[in-house]
Structures are given as C-alpha cells and as structure tokens.
Amino acid sequence: MSTDPQPIPLPVTAVTCLEDRAHVERRTVLDLAAGVQRLRLGPVAATAVDRTLHAELTAEHAAGVLDARIVRAWTPRGPRPSAGDSALRRRVHALTEEQSALKRRRDRLRTRLDLLGRLAADLLREIGEGTGHGESEAPRWSAELDRVDAERDAYGEELRAAEARLSSLEAELGEVERARGLAESEPAELLAYVDLTVESATAGAAGLRLSHLTPCALWRPAYRAVLDGDSLTLETDAVVWQHTGEDWSDVRLALSTARSALATDPPRLTEDRLTLTDRSAAERRTVDVELREEAIGDLGPAPVLGLPGVDDGGEVRVLSAPAPVSVPADGRAHRVPVSSFTTAVSSEYACSPELSPLVTQVVRGANRSGHALLAGPVDLVRGSGFTGRGTLDFTAPGAPVELAFGSGDDHRVVRRTEESRDTTGLTQRTVVTRTVRLHLSRFAGPGERGDRVVVVRERIPVSEVSAVEVRVRGEACSPAPDAVDAEGIASWAVSLPPGGRRTLTLVYELSATAKVSGL
Hints:
This protein is of the alpha+beta class. Helices cover about 20% and strands about 40% of the residues.
C-alpha cells in the first residue's frame, strides 16, 4: 500500500447515463515511483459494480495496471456531531439534547407534584381526624397547608413553562429538520475505494482512466415547445435522476438509449408447422366476417402516467450535453439542456367528432435538431403562456413534427348517427346504410374578423374481403368529402365565419352477399 494516509482523489469527469444505470468515467494524474506499488484512490460510489471496473494508464514511460479492485469500508457515524458537520446538524443535535433534558425535568416535576398532592391529602385527613377527637393545632395545620400550596403553585408553574418550551422546541426542531432535508443529505456510511496495483519502469507522472457502471441513475427526454405565430421553437432537455451516493460536478454528460441489462444472445428458433384442412360444405356456403376497431391517435394532449421507457425507434441513440453539467445525488429530477431549434410551421384547426367534440390547433414543422427526437412529454407554450402538456412521438431527423396546442373554446361540434338495414328480394344482399350528421358552430367576439378553416375527419369502414363492399353515396352527402384516403378517413375543409354554422352529412353503405354472416 501507499504510505500516504490519505487516499488519492479520483473525481468523476464524464458520465454516460443509460436508461436505468450510468457508465462513470474518472481521470486523474498519478505520480508513480519505479517498481510495483499499490495505491488507494477514492472515495467512489459504494454502488459501483465490481465486475465492470476497468483501469488503464497512459504515460511516456512503460507503465501498466496489474490489478484493480473495489474495497468497501463501514464507518458508522457517532451520536455526536464531528468537526466537519454542518451548522444545521449541530443545531439539530443541540435542540435534541435540550429536548431530552426538558423531558426529564418534566417527568421529575410531575412526580414531585404527585407527591405534594398525596401530602396535601394526608394533611387534610389528619386535620379531619384531629378535629373529630377534639384536638386543635390550627397554627401548625395552617402553616403546613400554606407551605404545600406554595410548593404546588411553584412546581406547577415550572411544569407549565417546561411544557410550553417543549412545544416550541418540537416546532423548531421540525423546521430545522425540514431545512436540513432540503439543503443537504446524510453522508454515506458505506464508503468504497479503489485499490490499484501498478508497475512502472521509471518514476514519473502517468494519467489514469478508470470506468465502471453504477445503478441508481436514469434519464428520460422532455421537451418545451414555444409557438410564436408561424414559427415553432422546440427545446430538448434530458431529465436526469441519480442517487449513486456521490455528486456529479462539472462532468461531460452523454445520454444513451443502450440497454446493457438485456441479453445479447439471439432468440432460439423453433418449428412452426402449417397444416391444410379441407373446408366442410357449411364452411363453403358461408363467409364469417367481423368488425374490428383499429386505434386512432388522439389529436389532443394525452397525459403521461408513470415513467415510460425510452423509445429510440429500435436503434441506439446517443445525445450529448453541449456544456459541462452538475447533477447532485439527491434522487430528484434535474433538467439538462441538450438542443434547441426554430422552424417554420403550418397550422390547422382539426376535429375528429367520433373521438372528441373539441376543435384542436395542430402545428406541423420539420425536425431541424440534427438528431432524432425521442418520445416524451412536451410543455406547450404560446402567446398566452403555458397552455398544457402533450406528448411527442419518435421523430427522425428531418421528419415532420406534429404537436397539438390545445382546443379552442369558441367552437362546438355535435355528432348524430342513424342506421338502417335492408335486404333485396332477388340477390338476398344485406345493405346497411349509415348516416352521420356533424353540426359545427363558431362563437366569436365582437371585434373578431375573418373566416377560419376547420379540417373535420370522419372514418368509414374498410372491407378486407370481396364479399363485403363499402360505398360512399356521394349524391346523398352534403357536401361530399373533399378526400377519402386508403384507411377510410373522410375529410372536409370547412370555412366558418365568426358566428357561422355548418352541417355536414356523410352517407355510406355496407352491402354483403347472402352467404356472409356476422355483419
């Protein structure tokens, strides 16, 4: 071991924060002597993973690492504060000592008052018995009663003062404890050091790079979107939590989506046998169909419950903080700026009445951050200030970004549906006719001018079998949809003046042959 009684400091210089742990890198310069020697460095986080410890030396002369291991020492703290403790801990200790002394004094006062009460009772019984026997010692009895009453009053006053001081001490101690919990954390009792065995051909300085994994650290992406007219500013932040036992001060921080805990072995291949069977006569005569609902993304902001995993699109992504950052080991969330960009956006007011009767402002622009935007919550800000929180899906570099900035209170949408069923006489085809009526209204203030275009979307069933046909009756629609895409989404661009109203009517038919069942 080194003859130096103090371990050599080994500060954290770089951290790569993973989804559920962190890769910590430490660098320092060692003054080596010629030959083999053992050095103790640290302290380091006691949660460091031993098997991931890696150390290497860089020097102009021949030098190498023979062995590196983590050793831990248990140093429980004493009941009294030491020289290096803070003023808050000293104050807590003083208040606790005073509280213990007052409690003991209160107990003694209560015991003494109880004895004085018994003495007064015995004295009154003696007076009663003496009076009954014709004995009269009025001067002595009066003096004794006066002395007992005086002592009871004095000790009672001391007891009330002690209880009042105890109440104030409890309140003050609670405030100091809360302040101490916010301002500082308890030092770790379990300390870890790195014992390093090195060999150097000659004496001289050598650079040491040491790295290891540590749990109790994670990060998640978060965003802040500011809408200013036709431009959108999107700020990317990383929310970092760490409770590793040591602070990260002025470190180079990288954020990775790698999942080192997952197994790297490929999945085992198993047999999947396919067999063919002949259909029965009844199965040939009928075609079973069913209506299947497909999930459609909501236009409005969706709440983020819990702490979801990092969605990186199936590829490991690495982001870097542009400047050194400091993250204390307090287990709380700390936002670290990563990037920011401003892009031109197009805005529209959209509504899907089947999902929600609200008209939402949706903006779309290009991702100009230079990196992929991972899925995460986004704080929405526009001219009136903070408007709410939404979610941002995974977006590749250069891909369009779509955000919903809340609903407008000056719109109202009412949806009504009707359905009729008929069977033709010759072909025995079943025809289901559905009518959807959408009533749109716009409320405007006295000084508001100009029309507003609202994009309304309504879905139509899409058939996957030739025995079932879906047809939009354009002659019965009022007006006909502007477009119907391959997924069966019919859309209208409706222009509404201030105080205007419009009614949209969509009529479509589902027709099936007689051998179709389940419609």
